[in-house]
Fold:
Amino acid sequence: MAEGLREAEEAIGVIFNPAIALATRTAAQSKCDSIKEAPNALAFVCQLFEGSSVAEVRFWCLQTIEELLNHKYEILQEAERSGLRHWLTSLACQATSVIRGQVFLQNKLAQVYAILIRHEYPEQWQAPLTSLLCNLQNGEDVITMFLRILRAVDAEIINPECHRSPADSAVAMRVKDALREQCMGEIASSWYVILHEFHVTNPSLVKECLVSMAAFINWIDVQLVLNDKFVPAFYSLLDQDAFVQEVATCLTESVLKKMEPRPKISLIRNLIHQPTLEAGLSRRTKGRTCSPGDDMSDLVALATLTSAVCRELLVSADKLKNENP
Structure:
């Protein structure tokens, strides 16, 4: 086995090296393809991942697991599936230091984690996210993986843009219903803790948290994030240039939630602090001329939020008018 692992590592190194002759790379690719087709492919690549310190090798291993889940999940034995659940959870919760600072590996791990959730949650895999929640106290590496996994769950399962069939929509509904019932409240609580604890010491972690929140806001219970804790936190962060885009996106997603007109108007009245938005827009436009290369992202995010507020108020007003002509 050790010899096979060494040969596999060498072959992967070759296929990632464009400077090596094409014939050699083709032979190495054949070697890698034979690994993927082997009956013990899953166990082999997990062992290879753990035994290698080469980032490209680890990426290839995760990519191979992704392919197995997408194309051969049905033929995996239950022992293999169970082992993979344990391995991914352990990697995300306890071995995150091995991929620290390697965003492409973190994203690929999160994607694989989400794909297994798509197949198995909640019937076969009851605790993919609660296991992460229980380990957030282990440090910022685990928190980073937790947030990336939430984003991957949205990208791979929930976001309508990834739905290619009615079956995909059914899977998304199954996962959302399970999350609502099992742990959405805990996830929201963890978001607040991250915003509160790290906005000074780790702004990038807070930005990651806000991005994950924005992906979930449009379908979770409105009271989980639009309450006396979160709304002041949003506006406190909105005063800081580092978080304007992400906070504005969260507020925009909140304003766009599908609701009846009266609750929608009430939500906007309670959520939107007009003087703060006006001050933010004014500060970014006063005396400013647009030049090629200017970063207008903050201004665009605030303008998008303002536009959404106006549009939703107008639509709600029209609906009320039609109800009472």
About this structure: The chain is about 70% helix and 0% strand. The two ends are 78 Å apart (CA to CA).
